[in-house]
Known about the structure:
By secondary structure, the protein is of the alpha/beta class. Helix 1 runs parallel beside helix 2 (67-75). It has helices spanning 45-54, 67-75, 88-97; strands at residues 2-8, 11-12, 21-28, 31-39, 59-61, 79-81. Strands 1, 2, 3, 4, 5 and 6 form a six-stranded mixed sheet that branches. Residues 107-136 have low confidence and may be disordered. The chain has one domain: Dinitrogenase iron-molybdenum cofactor biosynthesis domain (Nucleotidyltransferase, domain 5, 2-Layer Sandwich).
Amino acid sequence: MKIAVTYENGNVFQHFGHTAQFKLYDVENGAVVSSQVVDTNGSGHGALAGLLAQQGVDCLICGGIGGGAQMALAQAGIRLYAGCSGDADQRVAELLNGTLQFAQEATCDHHHGEDHACGDHGCGHHSEGHSCGHTC
């Protein structure tokens, strides 16, 4: 199995479509046997699912992700674990031991509560109480 994580400075990068790197983990018998960081070379939203498919990725761990990218990943047969943050290696370990906390709907274009600003997600838009309208 091969797991990809949107990656920046050791952590899960929060926006799939803007990630500059993925960290790829090769897993055998439930354990990571190797990993490498690969650059996306400026590939945007649409090309990233294809890049992962070319790398033979089975699962993706990421932060926010838009609906179009979710569909592209599904079409490529890549299982999505979105809404994750923090240490990338730790999230992979949690996935492997069945304790990974992830969101079923982890898009950045959802409705935000009064105390929650879209800027908290790094969308580049600040809005309280309504959708930011930005698909990450």
